Amino acid sequence: xxxRLLQDVPQDEAAAARADALARSLIEAVREGSGLLGGVExxxxxxxxxxxEGVALMVxxxxxxxxxxxxxxDRLIEDKIGHGQWLEQTSGSDTFLIQAxxxxxxxxxxxxxxxxxxxxxxxxxxxxxxxPAVRVAARQVVKLMGDHFVMGETxxxxxxRAASGExxxxxxxxxxxxEGARTRVDARKYLVHYQxxxxxxxxAAGKQKLPARSGISVKLSALHPRYEATSVARxxxxxxxxxxxxxxxxxxHELNFTIDAEEADRLELSLDVIAAVLADExxxxxxxxxxxxxxxxKRALEVIDWARDLAQSMSRRLMVRLVKGAYWDTEVxxxxxxxxxxxxVFTRKSATDLNYLACxxxxxxxxxxxxxxxxxxxxxxxxxxxELAGDPAxxxxxxLHGMGEALYRSLLERRPDIACxxxxxxxxxxxxxxxxVRRLLENGANSSFVAQVADPDVPIAHLVRRPQERxxxxxxxxxxxxxxxxxLYGEHRRNSDGVELGDRKALAGLxxxxxxxxxxxxxxxxxxxxxxxxxxxxxxxxxxxARREIGTVAWADEDLADAAMESAAxxxxxxxxxxxxxxxxxxxxxxxxxxxxxxxxxxxxxxxGGRTLDDCLSEVRxxxxxxxxxxxxxxRTLERSEKLPGPTGxxxxxxxxxxxxxVCISPWNFPLAIFLGQIAAALVAGNxxxxxxxxxxxxxxxLAIGLAHEAAIPREVLQLVLGxxxxxxxxxxxxxxxxxxxxxxxxxxxxxxxxxxxxxxxxVPLVAETGGINAMVVDATALPEQVTDDVLTSSFRSAGQRCxxxxxxxxxxxxxxxxLEMIAGAAAELRIGDPRDPASHIGPVIDGDAKAALEQxxxxxxAAGIGPGRIGDQxxxxxxxxxxxxxxxxxxxxxxxxxxxxxxxxxxxxRARELDRLLADLAASGYGLTFGLQTxxxxxxxxxxxxxNAGNIYVNRNMIGAVVGTQPFGGVGLSGTGPKAGGPNYLxxxxxxxxxxINTAAAGGNAALMASLPTD
Length: 1016
Ligand SMILES: Cc1cc2nc3c(=O)[nH]c(=O)nc-3n(C[C@H](O)[C@H](O)[C@H](O)COP(=O)(O)OP(=O)(O)OC[C@H]3O[C@@H](n4cnc5c(N)ncnc54)[C@H](O)[C@@H]3O)c2cc1C
Description:
Blueprint: H1 2-8, H2 13-31, H3 39-46, H4 52-64, H5 70-81, H6 86-90, H7 96-110, H8 118-129, H9 131-149, H10 155-162, E1 171-176, H11 184-204, E2 215-218, H12 232-252, E3 256-259, H13 267-278, E4 289-294, H14 300-313, E5 318-323, H15 328-338, H16 349-365, E6 370-375, H17 379-389, E7 396-400, H18 405-414, E8 420-426, H19 429-444, H20 449-453, H21 460-463, H22 467-473, H23 476-480, H24 504-517, E9 522-525, E10 527-528, E11 531-532, E12 536-541, E13 549-555, H25 558-577, H26 580-596, H27 598-609, H28 613-637, E14 642-644, E15 650-658, E16 661-665, H29 673-684, E17 688-692, H30 698-710, E18 718-720, H31 725-731, E19 737-743, H32 746-757, E20 766-769, E21 775-778, H33 784-796, E22 808-812, H34 813-827, H35 848-863, E23 868-870, E24 886-889, E25 904-910, H36 915-924, E26 927-928, E27 930-934, H37 938-947, E28 952-955, E29 972-973, E30 991-999, H38 1007-1012
Parallel strand pairs: 1-2, 1-8, 2-3, 3-4, 4-5, 5-6, 6-7, 7-8, 9-13, 16-17, 16-19, 17-18, 19-20, 21-22, 21-27, 22-25, 24-25, 27-28
Antiparallel strand pairs: 10-11, 12-13, 14-15, 15-30, 23-24, 26-29
Helix pairs in contact: 1-16, 2-17, 2-18, 4-5, 4-19, 5-9, 7-9, 8-9, 9-19, 11-12, 12-13, 14-16, 16-17, 16-22, 24-27, 26-28, 26-30, 27-28, 27-30, 28-29, 33-34
Residues 260-261, 292, 294, 296, 321, 323-328, 346-349, 351-352, 375-378, 381, 398-400, 423, 445, 447-450 line the site of flavin-adenine dinucleotide.
């Protein structure tokens, strides 16, 4: 693609030379005199983001203003300032912003005597001036930064500022600050803000005509609580009318109305919304509608063509803002997590720069259907565009308020015929900070032009090097850029393939795959040496529709189970002698088969397990990852014996071998991934396996074993026994049993443990993974929007039927009301329904018994007067086992004594000074599976990690979805025995160790020693 770009953006050498000269003079002007530098450049220079201080300042700013209580604010400041050396950092800088920031933070440090440790700074200061004074000083910095980067706290103030002094040279597009809406109430609030702002901007717009007239920038994510690709029908029905209302209001004032560009997975959705809005008849003939397009996206050129064709078909002009893009790090991470075939964005900065020029060229060629608006702070990009664009009346530049001031002041002095518009954030400082931090992080990246221009050590020649030259000169390894997501785990293990559900073509492909894979009723039976065993026949019903029979299953009797054990025992020796590499190769083949048959597997996971599309996809991926990971681990750790140190004349080695027959008993909540994960580990370690899937999901178990046999795992080595807990218990009595892998309830694990202890003969090891009362602790520094997203995912995804799911949310009381309101409001927007519909967020629970148990718990809470209870008022589909999300606020941690396996969240409040007590109460439950923590205070993170014994701790993110090899999973205490599934110690538990000592000197003396003697 880069090759094509290089051809598409021709170099006119004379024009390039003129652009070079202009870029150099702009950069020189920016670098001359500190007075000309904008705030960000100064700030980054004084506190480089790579230093602790730079990051600490940003984190402090981001979180401080939302902390309502003094205690937590103090701890946050202590955490961030106590470790910074503000005074040293600021020496040599004389601009007002830095001086003031240094003063507010530095003065506190100056009050301390020399020789005090950084850790003691805040404690010492607090003793001398009191913590409130420190708090005030730190808040002052934040306010100062806010004043610099926000145009006004209200639209009126912002408009006044724009109308005064030098500000009048610019056009404006106002932006209402804030995070995306999580609730309907928040979306409504933003809508009203936008409406009020449009009215005010319109009233102040004077006589200017478009395109010079003022405008507004709108974020669609602020206007709908589920602005996501899979909710497309709902978004079009609910969001489009609101955007039309805003656009009509903007049209009434003839304003420029721009839809901001957001994450790549929302691109197609945003284009749908834009097309639907533009089709509104009342907007006909209006040339002020616009959209932003991100040049770092590989699809940018296509989007420009789309916009041009749309403008043409509607016989009007669109205003198109070309940006490079603000979410690069998020896009890269998401593509890796989702296992996409490639990144949606370029992975080389020069490729983004070059694509920007290619896009600009395409837009300029589409004039007058498109009015190009070039948003950049890069002097080289600006200079190149001045050359490319020609007629200055036919386009404009754009910059962010508080950034790029010197660059554009200098440009406009040279070229007063060129126009520039300022993107002007409006809102309270509290709302500004998240925006500010994103901007600073983005522009503080080493590759960023703004960061480089601020660094006097970067020569101008480097800054004006054209992207074409950089790309052409790149070494092969640079040319490759970031490794693509499939190679995330290096050469030994391929990442499993995912699907971007926001990519319509990819989603349609997946849905087609599933439709083709969906079969009629299935018949499952135990597989003894691959042959179907007889047994009592039962119907299998779908949790989606309890009346729909999706197949039958024959439950094994005890004789059949014994036959499976005996045959597996006979097959063990040969399998154990099969080279590790060969065993691993068969697992890898199974992984490939799972990938190939994904549609069929997902169809069955939906029908039998009631799992949503997203869940199914991640489950198939996890199963694939398990197979590939254990295969790679076996090659790494089991293939060769380990040579041990010892005396000369002796060869000492340790090797690992299979144990014998391992029984794998797995649950219904991950009927494929956990089932195959246990089996894969036991097999590759050299064991033969008798697998017993959960009685609720025999069809998936049967399909999975069939695939394993197809992957050349010998039928005698892998046996399938279908039935309930009783047949599982019977298997464990067999004398051939050499190991047990179990995932399920704590009660069953305890019963298995007792049963094993009562056996005669060798002691059989048990690897048990059980549940937990998983808690998340949230303090007042956490971002409520992030808490809300993470709580929703952790509690309600998979209808709460994950062992890692959040059961107990512990909110610091100072923020509890606001957080709870947002969580409940957001949960009310989750769609409960048929999991085969990609728009469903919550499917059914597994069966009637599970539903009844959850309803009983809900009734018990209600009877005890505990609220608030059910969230939302959506009618539940009548045919399946659906349970609506519930939230119950309980008085204390000890009120939740057992795991409630469903979409039910319990909440407790805690006081700022009582974190230790809370942690002690949580530890007292005896469980230790997952634990979540949301805070910006590093000391609290370290403290919780020290004091809690949970198996998986998640900080500032959701607490489910452990990734194989990345987050090895499993608990301690009542939550499991370890070792962790998907971790480096798991395989060994399925092996026996053998030490081999050979006296190499037994025959003929120690020739090796004699030969190695040095000559003297
Ligand atoms: C008026 C205005 C409106 C804006 N509106 C939006 C908007 O609606 N949506 C939005 O997303 N952003 C928006 N932005 C932000 C904009 O995307 C950034 O300000 C912009 O990316 C900075 O580009 P630059 O030319 O100033 O800087 P430069 O430093 O020249 O370029 C930075 C760009 O390079 C990219 N980059 C860095 N490293 C790499 C790499 N290894 N591989 C590939 N690319 C890389 C960065 O992600 C970034 O996009 C807006 C900016 C302005 C000025």
